[in-house]
TrEMBL record:
Native source organism of the sequence: Sarcophilus harrisii (Tasmanian devil)
Domain of life according to the entry: Eukaryota
PROSITE patterns, alphabetized: RIBOSOMAL_S2_1
Protein biosynthesis is among the record's keywords: no
Family per record: Belongs to the universal ribosomal protein uS2 family.
Source taxonomy: Eukaryota, Metazoa, Chordata, Craniata, Vertebrata
Keywords: Mitochondrion, Ribonucleoprotein, Ribosomal protein
Physiological role: Required for mitoribosome formation and stability, and mitochondrial translation.
Region Disordered: start-end pairs: 281-305
InterPro entries attached to this UniProt entry: Ribosomal_uS2, Ribosomal_uS2_bac/mit/plastid, Ribosomal_uS2_CS, Ribosomal_uS2_flav_dom_sf
Listed GO MF terms: structural constituent of ribosome
Protein name: Small ribosomal subunit protein uS2m
Length: 305
């Protein structure tokens, strides 16, 4: 960030000296540049020359400007956290992400994500899974980068320990027990007016243990909380902000999804620390340069006539 002099004083002073120089050097037919202007100043105006040099020196970033720069920089890149290198289509295939439910259990809103049917079992289109998974992981990374609260939700007892351990490793939250209705919509009454709701909810299963839509999906939509969810062929993806077509029953697929979310969140938090350190160092260097410019005495070149 470059520092500039006030619109009035600096511009007027510069125009006045340029006018004098143009009159004194009319035969040359040019106005004095900033460097020539500094050398042409009389000895008594050395302080003015130093002030003009200070006006062109960079100023250190303020705390608010530094915070805004850290937050807006990742939005300028399509893949700031290198999400695409975390997995491939073969990785999803080896983890059995493509296996869906029987054709009789198919939800009609999942038909665009189904590649075909084999032996009465739906096969999920992994090309679409790759695209949607990259979008979901990228959104999760940006949320973790901005220090948002991420809540992992599941109702499958088989993966309770795995999901809770993953949430603990990436320093986030998990809810794998019975989800009471109104936990989000009635939170100010139950927990007080200062309670903070999650900034993102990640569903490893959008159905509960009796294959009914999870009540948290509906409550999150009511409270305008963005959601990421793994949707199998028997799920309704409409209320999920970032649906991921995939198998939500296989241990291999759930382990892969847990690994991807954990790696993504850790990478985003490490990137946040790296960016804070980088911009703080740049701000300190700019501050030191400004202090050195203020403390530097007028050079002999300023005293030339």
């Amino acid at each position: 960030m470059q520092g500039h002099s006030p619109p009035g004083a600096g511009a007027c002073a510069g125009s006045a000296w340029a006018t004098d120089g143009a009159v004194g050097n009319a035969d040359e037919g040019r106005a004095l540049s900033s460097g020539a202007l500094t050398r042409a100043l009389p000895p008594g105006d050395a302080g003015l020359a130093r002030n003009m040099a200070l006006a062109q020196a960079p100023l250190p970033l303020l705390r608010a400007e530094l915070h805004d720069k850290i937050l807006t920089e990742p939005l300028k890149h399509a893949d700031f956290f290198n999400i695409k290198e975390l997995f491939s289509l073969k990785t999803l295939f080896d983890a059995r992400v493509h296996l869906g439910h029987k054709r009789g259990c198919r939800h009609r809103f999942m038909e665009p994500y189904i590649f075909g049917t084999r032996l009465e079992q739906d096969i999920i289109d992994l090309d679409q899974t790759v695209k949607h998974l990259q979008l979901a992981l990228n959104f999760t990374a940006h949320m973790a980068y901005r220090k948002g609260i991420i809540l992992f939700v599941s109702r499958n007892r088989q993966f309770t320990h795995l999901i809770e351990k993953m949430a603990l490793n990436c320093e986030e939250y998990a809810h794998t027990r019975y989800f009471k209705g109104g936990l989000l919509t009635n939170a100010p009454v139950q927990f007080g007016p200062s309670v903070r709701l999650p900034d993102l909810m990640v569903f490893f299963h959008t159905l509960n243990n009796v294959f009914e839509p999870h009540v948290a999906v509906r409550d999150a939509a009511k409270m305008n909380i963005p959601t990421v969810g793994i949707v199998d062929t028997n799920c309704n993806p409409c209320l999920i902000s970032y649906p991921i077509p995939g198998n939500d029953d296989s241990p291999d697929s759930i382990k892969l999804f847990c690994h991807l979310f954990e790696t993504t969140i850790k990478r985003a938090k490490a990137k946040r620390k790296q960016m804070e350190f980088l911009y703080s160092q740049q701000s300190k260097q700019m501050a030191h340069k400004t202090e050195d410019t203020y403390q530097q005495p007028p050079s002999p070149a300023h005293l030339e006539t």
